[in-house]
Write a structure and sequence with these properties.
Number of strands: 7
Number of helices: 15
Order of helices and strands: HHHHEHHHHHHEEHHHHHEEEE
Largest sheet: 3 strands, mixed
Helix content: 40-55%
Strand content: 5-15%
Structural class: mainly alpha
Radius of gyration: 33 Å
Shape: elongated
Length: 477
């Protein structure tokens, strides 16, 4: 039986690592332009579909009312028209279309405006009382026909847009087919699940030495925010963190007693605890926290049966455990390096507040994409870029990027060209907070500041997962 791959034909990707562009065009900038174009068209299509649906629903309410008015005038003469206008002005109904728009007129207000338009048009001819009813019906039928024509046209536009929307597979089309639960037999009163931490993409401020602003406040191991609190260890998590390295049997038993250990907040809470332990100099406990945190993360990334798959691979040989322990050691080394550096700054002499670029997640790497020079006078687009982008807009974006880079001080330009985070932070540390914040904002605007997340790769060839990360700018004293 031949396989049918047509269902993947409409998959819409926002970037393409194999895209080919002209040598004079920055590839990363082109991909960002392409992403923006796809998202803007998608949002415009959704807005147009919603607008047409509301317009069609409104017309379905107004057309029967106009038809009833025509029938009433044909039966009772112009008195029916005058009676309706008087009612609409004296006691209008509050019913209106559910658009949610401010100052949305009601249905009666729309009918009142229509009647006034019809009356103004008929009055120009100064008809006699005998023909007044016929002239009113004639004008109303013109408006009704125009509304019916628009209704047909709007329906065709809506069908075309919905067909175009179906051609593209996006995250909006993802639906949850089913979900499963579990019964925790060992503990009839499990601790309540901690709320899922909301991912934040924007740049935040991390105070690495709060003691610079107040001597009575002890230094903390991670940033504080009014909108988001750091995950805290539950008693079950604390006991789980104390399990010795490579004691997989004890870890399996702990997870079997409390399935809530497999929540996403467990890994975050254990890594924060590892950071705090590193600041205290407790290296062994910090490594245990990293080991258990990554263990939970691997189990979640390996799918529905991730727990059994993970522990079988850890105890079955084949190099899987070596890959896992190498990841543990690398993450632990980064945590210790950052925590000890922060501990030294916190215990040292207090100084002025500084802005520093710091990766919030140890697996995140910060790099700098520096433009090589100004864009050429003439940019030629080839292939798909001809349909997606305007050469003038591409050149303006590249010129803006180059101008931002040229506006930086020479020492900052050299630090960015070296692609060294340490050198860039050294230059930012010599600036005032306001000046450094503006520089970070411009780095992000020009696409020079890049955050790259490392992947969790199963080198045994049996599976693969990803470990996302965040990065943020930090203020240090």
């Amino acid at each position: 039986m031949p396989l049918n791959y047509d269902k993947w034909a409409n998959l819409e990707l926002s970037d393409d690592s194999d895209v080919e562009v002209h040598p004079n065009i920055d590839k990363r900038s082109f991909i960002r332009w392409k992403q923006r174009d796809i998202h803007e068209k998608r949002e415009k299509r959704k807005a147009d579909i919603e607008r047409l649906r509301q317009e069609i629903a409104l017309n379905k309410v107004l057309m029967p009312r106009i038809q009833d008015l025509i029938s009433a005038i044909s039966t009772s003469g112009s008195e029916a028209f005058s009676s309706l206008v008087a009612r609409l002005q004296s006691s209008p109904s509050p019913d209106k279309p559910p658009t949610g728009a401010p100052n949305q007129p009601t249905y009666d207000e729309m009918m009142s405006n229509l009647c006034l338009q019809v009356w103004e048009q008929v009055r120009k001819d100064q008809p006699s009382k005998e023909v007044l009813g016929g002239r009113l019906v004639e004008e109303l039928r013109k408006h009704l026909q125009a509304l019916e024509d628009r209704q047909t046209e709007a329906g065709k536009e809506l069908v075309a847009l919905e067909e175009e929307q179906k051609k593209h597979i996006t995250s909006d089309d993802v639906r949850e087919g089913f979900s499963s639960g579990y019964v925790n037999k060992a503990d009839s009163t499990p601790a309540p699940a901690q709320p899922k931490k909301e991912e934040k993409k924007e740049t935040a401020i991390e105070v690495l030495n709060p003691g610079a602003s107040t001597s009575s406040t002890p230094a903390r191991a991670a940033p504080e925010s009014d909108e988001e609190e750091l995950p805290e260890l539950t008693p079950s998590m604390s006991a789980f963190a104390r399990i010795p390295l490579r004691d997989y049997r004890a870890s399996v038993e702990a997870i079997g007693k409390d399935k809530l250990l497999l929540s996403e907040t467990t890994t975050d809470a254990l890594l924060v605890e590892a950071f705090n332990a590193g600041m205290r100099g407790d290296k062994e406990y910090a490594k245990q926290c990293v080991h258990q945190g990554l263990l939970v993360q691997y189990c979640n990334k390996l799918g529905k049966d991730g727990v059994s798959v993970f522990f079988k691979r850890m105890t079955g040989g084949g190099g899987a455990e070596e890959v896992f322990l190498r990841d543990v050691n690398d993450t632990w080394s980064r945590v210790m390096e950052r925590s000890q550096a922060l501990a030294q700054q916190s215990s040292g002499p207090q100084g002025n507040e500084q802005i520093q670029l710091v990766a919030e997640n140890p697996s995140t790497q910060i790099s700098f994409d520096v433009p090589e020079g100004p864009p050429p006078e003439e940019i030629k687009l080839e292939g798909e870029a001809l349909e997606k982008l305007d050469p003038a807009q591409v050149r303006n974006w590249l010129k803006r990027r180059w101008d931002i880079f040229q506006s930086f001080p020479k020492n900052l330009q050299k630090a960015l060209e070296s692609n060294s985070l340490e050198e860039v932070n050294r230059v930012l540390g010599r600036m005032s907070v306001e000046e450094a914040e503006e520089v970070v904002k411009q780095l992000d605007e020009a696409g020079i500041l890049n955050f790259r997340d490392t992947d969790i790769v199963d080198e045994t060839g049996k599976g693969k997962g990803e470990d996302g990360g965040q990065a943020e700018a930090g203020a240090a004293a």
